[in-house]
What we know:
Elements: E1 4-12, H1 17-25, H2 32-37, E2 42-44, E3 47-49, H3 51-57, E4 71-72, H4 74-85, E5 90-95, H5 100-109, E6 111-117, H6 126-138, E7 144-147, H7 149-157, H8 160-170, E8 174-176, H9 182-193, E9 204-208, E10 211-214, E11 241-244, E12 247-248, H10 259-263, E13 267-268, H11 271-284, E14 289-292, H12 301-314, E15 319-322, H13 331-339
Parallel strand pairs: 1-5, 1-6, 4-11, 6-7, 7-8, 11-14, 14-15
Antiparallel strand pairs: 2-3, 8-9, 9-10, 12-13
Helix pairs in contact: 4-9, 11-12, 12-13
Amino acid sequence: MSIRIDCFLIGHNEMKFSEYEKMVRSMGETSGAYRDLNYSFLTYKNHLYTLPDLINSYSIFDSSDLCMGDTFSAGIAYLGTFLHRAGLTFDYVNSFQEEKDYIREILETCEVGVVGITTTLYVSVFPILEIMSFIKEIKPDVKVVVGGPFVSTNIRTQADTTVQYVFRQIGADFYINSSQGEKALADLTEALRDNKPTDCINNIYYKKGDKYVVYSSEHENNILENNMVDWSLYKDRVGEYVALRTAISCPFSCSFCGFPQHAGKYQTTSLKAIEYELDKLNEIGKTHCVHFIDDTFNVPPERFKDLMRMMIDKKYDFKWHSYFRCQFADEEMVSLMKES
């Protein structure tokens, strides 16, 4: 009897960058996708370098090559935790390129309810197409759902004819349109597990005739405080680098940035909840560095200082880094950062 996995999550697909850049450039150097990508690399002696490429090429560290798969995905961590708390089973790969053999093993030997593809860092369809091709070659009839920023950004910014073309090009069974999406994924996974209708779930696009349609679009409001990552679910496979968040969205409304409109209302979680999550991560004993992915980690300033004091008091074994808004920096803040 095969093992049942209600939802199998697939993390980031880090394609060979020179090939990926060529694909995105074919969309036009003035396209939004290429303009976004253009800030992510530099050209030196006719060779393209991302930041990890530079580090790997010039041996800044005496270690194996760095890649994005070295950092445990925050998306995988939060989605898996939400599914688990909803009474659903899940498995995952953090990095598509590095864990293809494991994906093949799961698809060939297990009963998989739905494969979930995350799109957090994608500016074009090409990484998703590669994952879809790989999945369908192994198990053509498995259900696939695609969600995350790539999907919601296309729906928000493109005409419906373009969205329909992109959805058909990818060929997934379902798409999630939500700035959060955890509940939509859990509801869909549960419906597939229990053989219930999937055409009445909020924020899910599904195939109807020759079009993808949505039953209803409603804003999800999953309180971050109630969905802190359960790191015990990942203790056997979490590595040296981990990404986590203490807030959703951004407290500012800068004219050049549309992130707050996409991410929804700004919310932070309590110091107690952050301490609990960091304690559990520290107990596993494998993580050397935490990346706080909040857009403005040091806002509000007093909350940030209290968080630094907590980390100093706890004497965690890992270092940390974050995004930082310099206008709020003062001598006390910098001193606390250094000590923590």
